[in-house]
Amino acid sequence: MNELEISIINIIVNAGETKSYAYEALAKANETKYEEADRLMKKANEALNLAHNAQTEMLHKEASGQKIEISVLFIHAQDHLMTAISEKNLIEQIIELRKVVNTLVKNKGEKSND
Asked: This protein's superkingdom (predicted)?
């Protein structure tokens, strides 16, 4: 496996990890386990940084004149990274909304018991 292929695989693997951690975090938020959700979102961000760094390295090479071979695998990696970023960002927003909803539901339940 050459250096380019390794970079591409790093993008795919870390983008996949990003999505996996983010969805795990959402599940924890749905269970009102916010500290666990925050920990998982931190891991999602770390994985995303690794994927983004691999992409940035390839962009720097291209910008410095080294031709990067465009392959189906390269396109797949870019697609994975783009969707990981989008899904992570949306999940962060959903988690924040879930916190609000869970608080409102809890407060409503407490008021009805009074």
From this structure: Bacteria
